[in-house]
Amino acid sequence: MKENAVIWLSRLGQRIGEESQVDGAVNAKQRVRAPRLSATGRWQRFKSQFALQSMVLPGILFLLLFSYVPMYGILIAFKEYDLFLGVMNSPWIGFKHFQEFLNDPNFLNVLRNTLAMNLMGLVIGFPAPIVFALFLNELNKKRFKSFVQTISYLPHFVSWVIFGGLVLTVLSPSNGILNLLLTSLHIIDEPINFIAKPHLFWMIMVSAEILKGIGWGAIIYIAAIAGVDQEMYDAAKIDGAGRFQRMWYVTLPAIMGTVVIMLIFAISSILNTGFEQIMVMQNPLNLDVSETIDTYVYKVGLRQMRYSYSTAVGLAKSVVALILLFAANYVSRKVTDNSLF
Which of 76, 77, 176, 258 supports an S-S bond with 81, CB 3.0-4.6 Å? Predict the structure, then answer.
């Protein structure tokens, strides 16, 4: 009986395989025999969609003009660039500028500051918009919720020159509100010049960036939460789940794909600390901990007019960022099955 059952199952499997092959061949023939649009049909389809597709043209033109056309300037990273000779006529020197940057006495200090601030921002700043979006989603009063959203968005639209000036004013040792509050509460005996304390600079910068971008960064997570099926929350309520349990077991897993993608972007930009915020908060007293790759490139490239050297440094940073992007995407695809590509 067992042998007959095995034979019957094997024949059944073969028959199913043959039928699937026949169905696949039929579908393939149907796909091949599908009528192709004529030139007139293709033109009519393009004409009907032109109004919609033309909306992409400004973005494509902007990308071409300001991202791809200037890329020929990368050549000066491998040349001894001369303003009078131009890009194409300047002599080739290969990887000399890259070796100079690696041997520069400031290299380790600049790299340490850049990585330290970005890693702190990744550990502290990346979860902040997610937590903010989760708690904002739990607000029931629409007017209060809209008010909180509006207030949290506003700092994003303020330039770092103004926002950094506000931060410096708050931390001012002479009339800053923080020093006045701490002295009035007798927590400190005399005002502290926070921005001049090297050991506090990284935390000040990370806190300022979180305060400025938490509302704007939460938009994408709020949009993802809005797409969560309401029946999942109802089922969780029936099972006796509280608010925090619903956030942890329903909302967070539902937006995990969005979180992973944003984390990949954050890891790929780990060497990009920004320029404006550092220059606004930087001073000679905290220069040892505030000099990053972006400010270093600006000072070497424009102030010292070493265009080839600064281009090489910027190119090296971009290459590392590209490697980090592919690495983070690969790890994410293997671990969470979510990735960009």
Answer: 76
